[in-house]
Design a protein that fits this description.
two-stranded antiparallel ribbon, 12 helices, globular
Length: 369
């Protein structure tokens, strides 16, 4: 009787395993018929796909774009063949060797997932070269510039929180330092250097948080690489308090498993500031104009979700808006169509942070409002 039961059990498990294997082949066949697009969505592919021929071809294409410094370009489809003409074009446009717009970090994350599935040495080697690039680019104060090697324009050389560039770097360094999969293959000596760089980055965040009237507030999108003071980015991105980048910084600090008292105070102070500058009763709408253009306008709506401005004036904490002429305006309607409808001056960025994420984090870590 026992032998019969064992036979039935083996047939069941073998049959189930065959069905799972068949299901994986079916899923993989379906996935391989899709046209790939370079972007963060690639990282969400099922794990079985990263061992596929299609993933290997994609990884090989990505590898060809890695520069001699170990970095990758921005604003380009890295799945497109990297001909000499393409590489020259990227260089001429100034798109190479940067952490802006997900460059370098996204290719590294992608290659790590392919390596996890295939253990192909060139993927791991490229990833570790990328780490070397990031470590070399870091300032002694822990900040990261937007481009490295440094370029003449100070905008590209400042400590760049803008569009979460530095935070993406620190998130990756944190995963490597903590030996998270798929980054647990990194050489131990290099991993220790990554951990040290991560700690310097956290110190930089704490040292750049803006104090006003004895209170911790938020961060600027960019900070001077030497003085750590709020700094200009582009012509319409002034020294200010950021209602967008500060949210990403807070979320990163909250991801630290054992936050120090300084980190806890930094988070609490930034959250309190975000509460005080929230905009009530206004909604951002897109209106179709007679000429067919979609135009963003701010309208009154008592039921609207809370909004935050991208920029708050340092002295007054009033929302401010700039065109490419760098003139500060306090009325959103005074901004020209090109910037008003082509740039995110408002968003609901901090809503979920304040309503759910921070209360949960504060409860776990004993942080009192």
């Amino acid at each position: 009787m026992e032998t019969v039961n064992m036979t039935v059990a083996w047939k069941f498990f073998l049959g189930r395993g065959f069905l799972l294997l068949l299901g994986n082949f079916s899923l993989l066949a379906e996935l391989q018929t899709e046209t790939l697009q370079w972007g963060p969505a690639l990282l969400k592919k099922p794990s079985v796909w990263f061992a596929s021929v299609q993933a290997r071809e994609a990884a090989d294409a990505v590898l060809t774009y890695q520069s001699e410094h170990g970095a990758w370009p921005k604003n380009w489809n890295l799945l497109e063949p990297a001909t000499d003409a393409v590489l020259e074009q990227l260089e001429a446009k100034g798109h190479c060797n940067t952490i802006d717009n997900g460059a370098t970090i996204l290719p590294m994350r992608f290659l790590a997932k392919v390596y996890e599935a295939t253990t192909t040495p060139r993927d791991a080697e490229a990833f570790e070269r990328g780490l070397g690039y990031l470590l070399k680019s870091q300032y002694e104060n822990g900040g990261f510039p937007q481009f490295f090697p440094l370029r003449g324009d100070r905008y590209y050389s400042q400590i760049t929180y803008n569009d979460n560039a530095m935070i993406r770097v620190l998130e990756l360094l944190k995963s490597v330092a903590e030996r998270e999969a798929p980054y647990d293959f990194v050489d131990e000596v290099l991993r220790v250097s990554v951990e040290e760089a991560l700690n310097r980055g956290i110190d930089c965040i704490l040292n750049t948080q803006i104090w006003q009237d004895g209170q911790l507030t938020a961060w600027c999108a960019q900070h001077d690489r030497e003085t750590l003071e709020p700094a200009w980015a582009r012509a319409y991105e002034p020294p200010s308090l950021s209602g967008f980048e500060s949210v990403g910084i807070v979320r990163f600090l909250m991801s630290l498993e054992e936050p120090s008292p300084q980190v806890k105070e930094a988070v609490r102070g930034a959250v309190e500031w975000l509460r005080t500058v929230a905009i009530h009763g206004k909604r951002l709408e897109k209106i179709r104009q007679p000429d067919g253009r979609l135009e963003r306008v701010l309208i009154s709506d008592p039921e609207a979700p809370l909004l935050w401005a991208r920029f708050y004036e340092l002295e007054t904490h009033r929302p401010i808006f700039l065109d490419r002429d760098s003139v500060v305006r306090y009325d959103y309607a005074e901004i020209g169509y090109e910037r008003r409808s082509g740039y995110s001056f408002f968003g609901t960025w901090a809503q979920n942070l304040l309503e759910k994420e921070y209360p949960r984090w504060a409860s776990v870590h004993g942080v009192m409002d």
